Amino acid sequence: MKSSTQILVIDDEAHNRQALTLLLSHSGYQVQSAVTGEEALEIMEKKPFEIIITDLFLPGVSGIDILKRVKEDSPYTSVILITGNASAETAVEAMKEGAFDYITKPFNFEKLKVIVAKAVEKSRLVAENLYLRQQLRGKYKFDNIIGNSLPMQQVFSRLERIVNTESTILILGESGTGKELVAKAIHYNSPRKDKPFVAINCGAIPADLLESELFGHAKGAFTGAVSEKAGKFEAADKGTIFLDEIGTMPMHLQMKLLRVLQEQEIERIGTTRKVKLNVRVVSATNADLEDQVKKGQFREDLYYRLNVIPIELPPLRERREDIALLARNFLQKFCQEMDRSLMSISPAAMTALENYAWPGNVRELENLIERTVALTDSEIIEPQDLPPYIGEASGTDSVLASAPRVTESGVNMPEIIGNIERTMIQEALELSNGVKARAANLLSINRTTLVEKIKRLKIET
Length: 461
Known about the structure:
CATH class of the largest domain: Alpha Beta
Largest sheet: 5 strands, parallel
CATH topology of the largest domain: Rossmann fold
Distance between the termini: 57 Å
Number of domains: 3
């Protein structure tokens, strides 16, 4: 709304100052004026302005001085400079220092109104962006990563030590352990917190497209490159880039990434022009990179470049004391999102959750709580409200623990193994939403083998 937009006009020439004040006031803006740069600085200390329109050549504190102060103290404020000197040098200097735009005397009022309207829109967008960044910083504070267990306390301790470094970080952990959450926490608690955080999943993008996504391309570099495009590295300049599933990166791109890490510069596909960057690289993998290096599937020099500071996230089964804490946190979150009164988890149901192996880790627990809140009518979650593979079997660990020991009287091994297989297949099908190919991958068996076992064990799908 124009009526809420605060504009400060600074000009030592009375007729220009009065004309601008009158014009902008009639256009619906809230306008205040100052004769000198010193007076303007005093006014700016008392109240914020979205737009500042200042003469470039002021006695004492100049328009450029005003501009520099604004950029330091109020990044959402747009500065428009007025000058009687239409030289290119003046315009270039002003824009380099961060001016939104400039106009020359005698100025065109219609043009000025258009520039002011655009500046107002930009200031609002910047202010909104700053607000969202503040919200993100709150969301990704270290204390929002939940865990009182010893393994998680060791993770927190390392995070606190590295957050202010510029070192490259490699986050290790199984799928669902929260690697991206940790990467965001590192960024939003670091000196780069006001700069971009750019994430890319290297395993989710076809190999022939990944290079363009990472490094950009020139127009005509390949079929379909109809325009020039900046890559993720350029988008992350002065901030952080998060390379998830780094172990899936093709060999030829590994070499290019190594050069980027060494030189801190990239080349878009189809050009030899080098672009200097200042990017912190945080990568993550659920693969054993050391084993991939031994097999020749991952470059050893790149591995050591990425693994300057490793952070290993423990699987949920190795921090069972955090399960109740996480479950209650997710319960509160989803009850609030679904606009229902806060539910609770019965002791028997919580025991079942704590005894389960959680192959999908924290993500699996979060998804299960969300589903349970959505489908449970009562205010207390009981074992029967949980999926059968949790409520009945309490996970693979419980099946193994309850398996009889071999004695002189013998055991029925086929039956025992069948029970274990049934439980694991049910877990894999649940995790994969019934997609047999993915379930087979989770179990490290062929899809045809899985289908045969489902038929033999009479598992409903």
